[in-house]
Amino acid sequence: MKKLILSFLILSNFQLFAQTVLIENVVHTSAQKISFKHFDQVKKQLYFTSANSEGVLIYDFKTGKTILDTLNTRKVPKGYFPMNDIYTYVQHPSSIVVINSIAKDTTFIISPFDSVALPPLTFSNTTNKFYGIVKDNKLLEISMNESSVESIDTTLISAGDRSIKDLHIFKENTYYTIEEEGKEQLYLNLNEKGFKKLRYPLNYGESTYALRILNEDTLIVARSMRLGEHQLALMFASNISTNPDTLGLQRIFKGETTKIDSVLAEKIISENEFTQEMNRSIGKGRWSLLFERTTDALKAMTSLNKILAFEPNAFSYKKDSVYYILGPKHVDPADLSIDSIYYRKNGLITSYYDLAEDSTMLPSDIVIRIKCLDKQSGMMANFTADFYDYNTNTLIKGTHVDQGQVCYFSYFPDYTLGLTITSQGYLPHSMSFAPSLEYLSNKRVEKLILLRKPSEKENTFTLNNVYFAFDSAKLSEVAKRELALINNSLSKLNVFTIEGHTDNIGSEKYNNALSKRRAQSVKNHLKELGNSSTIITVGKGESFPIDSNETEFGRRKNRRCEFILE
Q: Is the distance from CB of 169 to CB of 127 less than 8 angstroms?
């Protein structure tokens, strides 16, 4: 296994990585160069070709399989763009045709007789136009419908003596493949500021010659590792589209995510959860809008979490014993009028607030951004998240997040909270957040969750909010809440096993019996909730710790129950 040097920032209840962790999965290999054709945002399918393929290949992110497109077999077109279930644009060396899959006919949009020199085109979902690079680094822009060409324009790209080979547009950014010293390298176009070369991992090995950003957190690259070996590699990490050139600080391959050699020796990295810190934006200036003023911390947390759904830059500010829930700061108070109209449309009444001498203060709360991806495909998944306080078992925020969306949570660092994530067809995922002074409130904690589907390899999970006090098998109210949240998923199973575990304090015989009682407590509560599955309980005692028994924190994690699906 390759050695990866990791820098850890160990927090109270989970590990926080000081660097971005990039998960990589090679999804296709070829002896010949791979060419991207199209990415279908709706179906989550990537269309591509290679010189030795029989036609257009489709990689399906939902199933993780590559298949041959039956609409265009035995041909390798220059461009291939399935726009919907009916129309597919096909580019040949000197023409473009539209295939109607319903009528089974074709229409020439550009014919060979039009004498138009066409480079390989790419389609931008942002502008709904086609783009290509022609001779002397000119950008070709074509607007088409199903029956005709609407416009053709060319623009010169200032790239010096370098030759541009390919381009890709994602939202406001354009990425170019540029030939440099005999190799094709990837660059980000900074418009009037020139180009920025994308760094490792996009340009490692012999050549990474094409890139497609699929969504905010997922990209795919085509590369040549060595002569006769080309690969399609899927990569995902939080906010991958914001700075794709800075993602290479850590690389974890598929199959290497369970345990990694590191300078800290034998640190276990959960392969289903990654964390990093990002700079937090709350605006600048002394002016803000006030949503609420309260001395009740739980009320303040609940209000702020509600507001974060449509204003991620909102924050809390504590002065004396009063919590102020505020919108982003502004230098000009006139800007508050625009904010006020926006908030009023969302049913919130605000008032002007002058931070005055406190304008340089930091937020009192910690913001967590949650993104969930399908572990197999790397594509974003929908999910339901419940965020609750341990001491009072109060629900701070419960929300359903649609596919392609993220959610934000906020809490005060002197409180203990739990977070349970459920998604249909996936194993549940849970986290707990203990009081800590190590968090920086001017940072945003980004958590990337890889949701797993039940399988022979992915059939075990632990609920991090179902834990037990020392020498106890009694369920806390928080544990009961989490079990209620996942019971619907468990009820669909015919049979599953609950394994109870303990720390190493006490005799082995006593701990075996205690672990059995803990598993039985979980089973009894699930039955009270109406679960009709066959539930087997097993006591594992102290034999399988997941953390060190030398500290109270480690022993607390070992006092747990694991679920094993049959």
A: yes
